[in-house]
Amino acid sequence: MTPTLAPAAAPQVRWGMLGKVFLTWLRKNIPSVLVTAVIGAIFGYVSNVWMVSVVYQGTNGVMPGSTAMGPNNIATPAFIWGLGSALLFGVFGYYRGVGGARFWAGVRGLPDTVRGLFTAAGATARAALLWGAAVSLLLSLIVGPAVGALAGLGLFALLTGFAGRLLSGLVARLLRPLLARISPTAPAAATDHAIAVGLLGAALALVVAFMIPPTATTLKLVAAIGCGVAAFFIGGGRRASPPTALMLLLIGILGVEVAQILLHLLHPLVALATDGGQIECQYANKPYWLCEGSATVLAISVGTATASAAGGTGGLFVGQTIAAVTTGFDPQLLS
Asked: pTM of the full predicted structure?
């Protein structure tokens, strides 16, 4: 008899088994892992060299928080390239695991999946959606559009799949103690379904924020305030005394503004120099790898290559593991 998974209840993850499962998967999929790592590394390396040398015209032009990796901008692009590669190869791994027919059936069923999340959340759905959007719009002012968009897409993919039940349950357990300090009745409203809808609102807002020009910070602030105020009143804020949620939102907005001012004050002025830009190399009439400053660009691009290779490997593992659980195969990760 073929075992089946219970469709409703979310299984409990045995997190202690995660490392063991990954090592077992790694040993059994060495060829796929090597191909994934090589493709990710080449794409990350070539893309960063091109962006720094052509788009930014050298390392001095690389802005803090941008997608390209430079001497003064390492953490953000490493995260972007790792997360982007993880999303790409995660989708590919899931596609391979469940097969084309089931994969595309899931894509076509996304509207029904989202509708099901709202139905399960009930009366708290609208307020949860707006609170998630408000928080994400504030975060988008700090983390940058590229990071936010990738995080939003990844979050949406997780929420609309099998892992959504696990993610919303985990976030709910983390948030309830914090919500209890704000309002005694808040944890009761923060059901797993409401948290899932809130995370969905956060994911969609991050993607929308990517489409707003980076200079339009006022628009994002107004949108965040609007979402927060609407969520406050839809969720029954008229009966709350004092309006703690609105106070926290305003404090968050003030913090974002201070962070933006500090970033502008601390950002160094860009000076023209022989720093690996393509135009400077053309004036020198030399191959790029012989131009002054190109060695720095070529060396630092190893960072994006490494991040992309590592992210792709992790994404492939997550995608294939979710596919294995979805199709009924127990990878010793769940109970």
From this structure: 0.69
